[in-house]
Design a protein that fits this description.
This protein is mostly beta strands. The protein has strands spanning about 20, 25, 45-50, 55-60, 60-65, 70, 85-90, 95, 115-120, 140, 145-150, 160-165, 170, 185, 195. The strands form five sheets. The protein has a six-stranded mixed sheet, with no helix packed on it. A three-stranded parallel sheet has the order 11-13-15, with no helix packed on it. The N and C termini lie far apart (about 50 Å).
Length: about 200
């Protein structure tokens, strides 16, 4: 494959449960179905983030989360975080765990993200996932989520508008706190609970 780098040696071949990285002297991480679909020519780095999920950073600044099921591992596995301008969680991913946050109060380096898109297969998101992403201007939420988590978009000062999906019944506490550029919010038809200070300082 073209575009392979040292990070790729950390992954064993499909179906091979014993192959190890002789350089590091450690067992390699399991191969995830779908990794062969990576465009190796544009790939900057990639890594596993769940039993059947993985992320790929491309040279156009897109960080895509692919595969199936839950995302359970940390986002700080991405080494070149300053390159990321767009996050895309693709179809097949069902939930994002609380370790996969890209908020600046967890660790720095994701300050250039301006766009986030979730596939409709995603049904659960973590609290504070995008906290203080000050460059974020656009977000497409998944249609199936039932709640906007606490502090989910706290301090996203460049976000101008957001559409709440129809399935959402609850907006958590401080979900949009400090989104000072927010001018338009389209509420879904099912919202019956809005947490404390959800839209404070907007």
């Amino acid at each position: 494959f073209s575009g392979l780098n040292d990070n790729c040696r950390l992954y064993r071949s499909p179906g091979d449960a014993t192959w190890s990285d002789r350089v590091a002297g450690k067992n390699c991480k399991p191969w995830v179905d779908g990794m062969l679909d990576i465009d190796w020519s544009s790939m900057v780095e990639f890594g596993a983030c769940g039993d059947e999920s993985f992320w790929v950073l491309s040279n156009d600044g897109t960080l895509s989360v692919r595969g199936s099921g839950a995302v359970t591992d940390y986002a700080y596995g991405v080494q070149q975080r300053s390159l990321v301008s767009r996050l895309v969680v693709e179809d097949g991913i069902t939930s994002i765990g609380d370790k996969f946050t890209i908020s600046s109060d967890s660790y720095t380096g994701f300050e250039n993200i301006s766009s986030v898109t979730f596939a409709d297969s995603v049904e659960e998101l973590p609290a504070g996932m995008l906290r203080d992403c000050s460059s974020l201007q656009k977000i497409d939420l998944p249609s199936g989520i039932k709640a906007i988590p606490d502090k989910f978009l706290y301090g996203c000062t460049s976000l101008g508008s957001v559409q709440i999906p129809d399935a959402v019944t609850k907006i958590g506490e401080e979900s949009f706190y400090g989104c000072s550029s927010l001018q338009s919010v389209s509420f879904g038809s099912s919202v019956d609970t809005i947490g404390a200070e959800s839209f404070a300082k907007c």
